[in-house]
Write a structure and sequence with these properties.
The protein is α/β, with parallel strands linked by helices. Helix content is 37%, strand content 12%. Bound molecules: glutamine (GLN).
Length: 489
């Protein structure tokens, strides 16, 4: 059962081969068995999950089930969920039980999915290794001495080790795609505005976007169908006609060749900076795409080299503003002893935030301050515009852009923790996509020394269905995604 696709799982539930209660229990048992080694979950609440499973079973018995009814899904602990501890990986929120559901959580609830638990993450989604979490690092199921990637590292490790059939993540600069790459999963970051950010704890609001982490592109399409949609509680949510992200995947459309698809290969993604082994695997995938009928064309993204620098001005600027609300008054951690109000703010924030979060708040406050605003913040916004323009130019020549997701396979725990710049460079191929607000997917493309590598496909605005189709066709012929780590029986 644990290797079933979401579609096959839904069929088993509809055919009464298994009940949602049994399926949920199966995963809860796996979490008991394996989570202590991985640290993928921050919170599980078996009674709450099983109650939802019972409700799903009743719905299935009435014949009212949808594609996710009764299927347990793990959620990144950045999504507020009513009556669940919602920590965002921080001591600051280690006592916060949310009084309401995020839009993503209510959408899964309406679909009848079972909430399996809240997954570990980098503190406030700041990181690429899941090492900044107040709850400790997550281990990569493919090699326990390596990181799973971040910041959605708990979600990725949980799905990779089959502790959950699928999970949600969020991606501000790569946090769905990079852990997907490092854990042999498929992860999609949608076009900015496609998934509501309501109830998703904000890091950098103009970049944050939620998306699915699954074992295949087809599973991601099913999840995105539930997650996407207009929400008037998020002012950047886009009011568009609903689409079926699975529409290109079923046969015969799903089996059609990729003739007519032009893939752009940016020079900037294939130079130095990417490990030789990842480059080799991505090049092999390009050959596979040619076999499937796609054409390739060399393109340039000239401003790409500025993306990480611009991001590390814009994201901290927005974070410094968003995180001002954590003051020890309204919710979250408050220092036990203090002299006066200012002392209470200072101590609560000093104790509640970890080092990386503090670094970002300091950088953000600095680049927004009078005298530096023009030199840093405004300049970064100009670069952001150039990056968006590069992509717009590129999409006049091609339909999708292909490259590596991450410059290396999973690195060792601790390897980059002391060097923020090295850590920041983990997202060198993913960050520009967020700055431009584009959709992109990472899918498995092979292994180097036993560790998975990811291939990234970037599309123009609202091209999720096309990206999913291109990913799905590759996965039909190159089933790297079906491989799973040993030791999680
Ligand atoms: N690694 C990047 C950062 O630390 C991106 C994180 C994310 O996408 N949430 O900001």
């Amino acid at each position: 059962m644990i290797e079933h696709s979401l579609q096959a799982m839904a069929r088993s539930l509809a055919d009464r081969e298994i009940s949602s209660v049994e399926l949920t229990q199966l995963y809860l048992d796996r979490i008991v068995r394996h989570n202590s080694g991985l640290n993928a979950f921050i919170t599980v609440d078996p009674a709450a999950s099983l109650a939802q499973a019972r409700a799903a079973d009743e719905r299935l018995a009435r014949g009212e089930g949808g594609p996710l009814t009764g299927i347990p899904i793990a959620h990144k602990d950045i999504f507020c969920a009513k009556d669940w501890l919602t920590t965002c990986g921080s001591k600051m929120l280690s006592n916060f039980v949310s009084p309401y559901d995020a839009a993503v959580i209510s959408r899964f609830g309406e679909a009848g999915a079972v909430m399996l638990g809240k997954t570990n993450m980098d503190e406030f989604a700041m990181g690429s290794s899941n090492e900044t979490s107040f709850y400790g690092p997550v281990r990569n199921p493919w090699d326990g001495s390596c990181v799973p990637g971040g910041s959605s590292g708990g979600s990725a490790a949980a799905v990779a080790a089959r502790l959950a059939p699928a999970a949600t993540g969020t991606d501000t600069g790569g946090s769905i795609r990079q852990p997907a790459a490092l854990c042999n999963l498929s992860g999609l970051k949608p076009t900015y505005g496609v998934v509501s950010r309501y109830g998703m704890i904000a890091f950098a609001s103009s970049l944050d976007q939620a998306g699915p982490l699954g074992r295949s592109a087809a599973d991601c399409a099913i999840l995105l169908n539930v997650m996407a949609g207009f929400d008037d509680r998020d002012s950047t949510s886009l009011d568009r006609q609903r689409e079926d992200y699975c529409r290109e995947l079923a046969a015969p459309a799903g089996n059609k060749p990729l003739a007519g698809l032009t893939i752009g290969l940016p020079e900037e993604f294939f130079g130095e900076g990417c490990s030789a082994e990842v480059t080799r695997l991505v090049e092999a995938a390009i050959a596979e795409y040619r076999k499937l009928g796609a054409e390739t064309v060399a393109i340039r993204l000239p401003s790409m080299g500025l993306a990480v620098a611009a991001y590390y001005v814009i994201a901290p600027a927005e974070a410094s503003s968003n995180l001002a609300r954590f003051d020890g008054v309204r919710y979250g951690h408050r220092a036990a002893d203090y002299r006066d109000l200012t002392d209470m703010y200072c101590k609560s924030r000093a104790q509640g935030f970890g080092a990386e979060v503090k670094r970002r708040i300091l950088i953000g406050t600095y680049v927004l301050s009078h005298g530096y605003y023009d030199a840093y913040y405004l300049q970064a916004q100009r670069v952001r515009r150039l990056i968006a323009r590069d992509f717009a130019e590129a999409f006049r020549q091609c339909d999708v852009i292909l490259g590596p997701t991450s410059p290396s396979t999973a690195f060792k725990l601790g390897e980059k923790a002391a060097d923020p710049v090295q850590m920041y460079l983990s997202d060198i191929y993913t960050i520009a996509v967020n700055l431009a607000g584009l959709p992109a997917i990472s899918i498995p493309c092979g292994f180097a020394s036993g560790l998975p590598a990811g291939l990234q496909l970037i599309g123009n605005y609202f091209s999720e269905a096309r990206l999913l189709h291109a990913a799905h066709r590759y996965q039909q012929e190159n089933p790297w995604h079906l491989q799973h780590p040993d030791g999680f029986a």
